[in-house]
Amino acid sequence: MDMAPPIPPEQLAILASESQGPKTVSIVIAFTALALVFVLLRLFVRIRFTQLVGWEDCFITVSMLFSVAQAALQIKQVGWGAGKHQVLVDLPSTINSLKYLYWSILTYCVGFTFTKVSILTQYRRIFAVKRARIPIYIVMGLCVATGTEALFTFAFVCTPVDAFWNVMKRPAAKCLDEDVLRYINGTLNMVTDLLIAALPIRVIWRLQLVRRQKIALIALLTLGWFVSIVSIIRLHSLYVLSQNPQDSMFYAAPPIYWAAIEMNLAIVCACVPALKPLVVQVIPAFASRPSENNSSQRSGASRSSKLSRSFLKLDGNDRSFEGSVDAEQGSAGSELRPITALPPVHQRESFTRHVRGTQNMATKQYSGQSRGT
């Protein structure tokens, strides 16, 4: 068997200078730190301004923990040679890098699923009417199902499992086609991103709000479109990797940092709507309503002012107006009304006696006035 000629030192130096490792580490750290800042700000708003921490906040916190774990694993991948040309990486380093890749894929699957569930849980709180919630439950079930499928298919992609990273065991192992799995799971991931981004559009557009408010609400709740774009870019980087198996360590860098961008950008998008109370504190003008030019528009804005609060108060501080939207009642001629909150259970009996007493008093006064006339 002919041996490949040794590579001249000058060429090795050029190949070493082309390493994508430093770039990959910088991107991973930057986007993970950005997402962490947004999550901490979100929790600060919940505790400081609303004194209310919901399930969506718990889910996004869990997702952030998995994002930090993924970042640590991705940095270890780079430390063992990911981003360098294959000729510069020995076999033990390749095996170690693939081992950290294996675990980073699993953390990605779990963390991204928690992010999607957090967003959908927030939708569920805002859209409290049953008919508006049914699509949310369907998409949530789809996200959990696809996330679980991706987790287990990658966890057991090879038999034995360690054949995924130990290339010496690959010839005797039974492994699924990793490229096909990446394309399938990446496509399913992108589809669920699009569904999550599209869910609020129909409900918001049927509200009796001025057009600018509708567009602002849609933009606020559908930031996931940006994540879908990143998903497409990540899928393309996986395709490029599959087309260059002879230098897989070098071409593994873009999928690493695009996965970090995708996961952390999703966390940021999930946190942005919850930061409104903080933004209002910094920029009070942000809370103002746009004025209209004609009386009919002013009338429509007046009727829907309470409705706009049900969507703009995404901090969970005003439960009286939460979930007042029925997706099927937005047709012409029908008026959507906010739900009036009942007193707490322990106060309802005294509240009822108070209402009845007021009604009886009003009846007696009316009767006396009638006899007097």
Automatic annotation (TrEMBL):
The keyword Electron transport does not apply. Residues 41-280 form the Rhodopsin domain. Coiled coil: none annotated. One of its GO terms (cellular component) is membrane. Its main location: membrane. It comes from the Eukaryota. Residues 357-373 have a biased composition (Polar residues). The keyword Lipoprotein does not apply. Keywords: Membrane, Transmembrane, Transmembrane helix. Residues 319-373 are annotated as: Disordered. It is a multi-pass membrane protein. It is found in: Membrane. The chain crosses the membrane at residues 25-45, 52-73, 100-122, 134-157, 186-205, 217-236, 256-275. PANTHER family: INTEGRAL MEMBRANE PROTEIN-RELATED, PTH11-LIKE INTEGRAL MEMBRANE PROTEIN (AFU_ORTHOLOGUE AFUA_5G11245). Belongs to the SAT4 family. This is Rhodopsin domain-containing protein. It comes from Periconia digitata.
